[in-house]
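Hi R.,

As promised on Friday, here is the backbone we talked about, encoded as structure tokens. Could you run it through your design pipeline when you get a chance and send me back a sequence?
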């Protein structure tokens, strides 16, 4: 009987806990739905340009000559902006091409190193190769070291050129990325 009573008390306790958990979950869902979204609005130039006043044709005719000068100055500034954008695009293209060249050289160096590791593993895995082909091995090893050094120098030069390009673009006010 005591055992039955203990199981019954535990069952009631579990039911009460689950019932309170459900109401707690419901309360959380209700609080989430009632939560007000943040009203912080970030204004950008796009917001202002879309709300700029538009002049009608009749108003344009009554605009004084000073406004025409302002319009011409605005056209010149638009042309300057277009020229600056074109120059920025040109810088960006040059930098991207140099980044691609650096990436290609990095891949070539990595491939060369991996192939060398395979040759080394193959050479040292078989004692017969070491005895038969030691002269050829050392000649190939010397050639590899020369080629590897040349590739490393070309990669360093390409990276330096990329850094110089990015710095020049930054000084020209183009960002250089």
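Update: got your reply. Pasting your designed sequence below so it's all in one thread:
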């Amino acid at each position: 009987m005591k055992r039955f009573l203990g199981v019954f008390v535990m069952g009631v306790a579990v039911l009460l806990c689950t019932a309170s958990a459900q109401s707690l979950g419901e309360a959380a869902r209700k609080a989430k739905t009632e939560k007000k979204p943040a009203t912080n609005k970030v204004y950008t130039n796009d917001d202002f340009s879309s709300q700029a006043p538009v002049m009608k044709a009749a108003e344009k005719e009554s605009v004084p000559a000073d406004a025409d000068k302002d319009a011409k100055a605005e056209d010149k500034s638009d042309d300057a902006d277009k020229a600056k954008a074109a120059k920025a695009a040109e810088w960006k293209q040059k930098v991207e091409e140099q980044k691609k060249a650096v990436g290609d050289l990095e891949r070539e160096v990595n491939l060369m190193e991996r192939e060398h590791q395979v040759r080394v593993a193959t050479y040292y895995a078989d004692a017969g190769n070491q005895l038969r082909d030691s002269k050829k091995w050392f000649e190939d090893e010397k050639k590899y070291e020369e080629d590897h050094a040349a590739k490393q120098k070309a990669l360093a030069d390409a990276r330096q050129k990329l850094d110089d390009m990015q710095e020049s673009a930054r000084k020209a006010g183009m960002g250089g990325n």
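One thing I noticed while checking it: The two ends are 80 Å apart (CA to CA).

Thanks again,
M.
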